[in-house]
Amino acid sequence: MIEYIRQTITMDKKWLDPESFTKAFVTCQSLPGAIVVNTAAHCGYQLRGLSGMFTVFIAFLLPSFFIMLIFSYFYAQTQDLSLIKSIFIGLEVIVVAIVINATFRFCADRLKKDPKAIILSLISAILIMQKIAPLIVILSMACIGIFLYTREMTTKIGFSGKYDLPLKHIIIVATMFFGFYCLIYLFHRDVFELAYIMTKIALMSFGGVYTAMPIMFHEVVEVRAWMNSKTFMDGVALGQVTPGPILINSVFVGYITNGIVGAVAGAIAIFAPGPLLLCIVIPFFNRIGYSQYFQSATKGMIIAFAGLLIFVSIKFTISVEWSIIKFLLLFASIAWLAIKNNVIHVALAGIVISMVVF
Fold first, then answer.
1. Mapping DSSP to helix (H, G, I), strand (E, B) and coil, where does residue 194 land?
2. Is 276 strand, coil or helix?
């Protein structure tokens, strides 16, 4: 999706030059949260200031939100029907294949045959299996990353040109964000914890949206038991067939736990920290983003997220009641993802196969 945005903005429409887009992407890649959403919002800010950021942010998320809201509604109404059960029997296998593929690709891309990183990621997975809080594991690996990798990092040269953002824009975005929390606390206090958890997930997920999935699983399924593993996997499957950012499954979690208000709160709480962080970080990114200590700490956190993905891959795998047909579907899905890496095609094929086989 990033490549599609880059081509549209820099080549087709020529709204930004390649350096400006790269600046936006590099900034957002260094921040927690949904990289695609944050990059689009950053481009909107470069084009039209704060109004551009809000316009792009809302326009980018709104179609996905409504599609996932519709999916969530029909899931809640029809999940007990035999046909729907059959579809999700196959989709839970597809989700396992997607997570295994994401784990492999993430580790191959981010760890890059680094023996220390591989060992530390396995240690992270073991610690989480032993009920150590993911936040503790992430922070611990960040400290270890500073100790192990600082000397290996090089201080990069920042982007040229003005890279600033007025203080009043930071105040406006921060006021809107905390105003949202105040409204929830005053009028829907039962949704406040959901919003807090979604924001916590957003602020802890470095390295792409797949790193948010294990944290969401830990918070929603293991800590608070708002739903079981199967229901959560069904939400992940719906997120895969919904166009837009993968974290849109926060709408599913919000709807299942708190209805429409929960769906809206879940979406805002998990995506809104992105623009707020951008407003705070943009003026200082050339000094912070290229720091050796920042890079090495981020490297440590990426290692922890690899461990989290390994943990979720194991948890999802053991939650499925396996049969020969399911194993064949799993291996076929992993093979197709390895060749084409087209999640939507695999998910849609899984739906058709489920309707016929299960």
1. helix
2. helix
Q: Distance (Å, rounded) from C-alpha 261 to C-alpha 138?
A: 31
Give, in order, the Cα–Cα distances in Å from 6 to each of 20, 22, 241, 245.
10, 9, 23, 16
Q: Which of 26-30, 257-261, 315-319 has the lowest mean pLDDT?
A: 26-30
Q: Are 57 and 44 in contact (CB under 8 A)?
A: yes
Euclidean distance between CA atoms 298 and 142, whole angstroms: 6
129-138: Cβ within 8 A, 24+ apart: 129/311, 129/314, 134/204, 134/214, 134/215, 134/218, 134/304, 134/308, 135/204, 137/304, 137/307, 137/308, 138/204, 138/301, 138/304, 138/305
CB within 8 Å of 314: residues ≥ 6 apart? 125, 129
- 7: tokens are 């081509």
Per-residue model confidence (pLDDT) at position 80:
66
Unique residue bearing structure tokens 């461990």: 307
Judge whether 242 and 67 are in contact, CB under 8 Å: yes
Tokens representing 216 are 């969401």
Amino acid symbol at 316: F
- Mark 14-42 as b/e (b = at least 16 C-beta within 10 Å): eebeeebbebbbbbbbbbbbbbbbbbbbb
- The whole-angstrom separation of Cα 228 and Cα 100 is 20
Element (H, E) at 332: helix 324-339
Domain ranges, ordered by start, for the chain: 69-357
Round to whole Å and give the CA distance between 236 and 249.
6
| Single pTM value for the model | 0.76
| pLDDT greater than 90 at residue 123 | yes
pLDDT tens digits, residue range 48-60?
A: 888 888 999 999 8
DSSP string, 53-100: HHHHHHHHHHHHHHHHHHHHHHHHHHTTSHHHHHHHHHHHHHHHHHHH
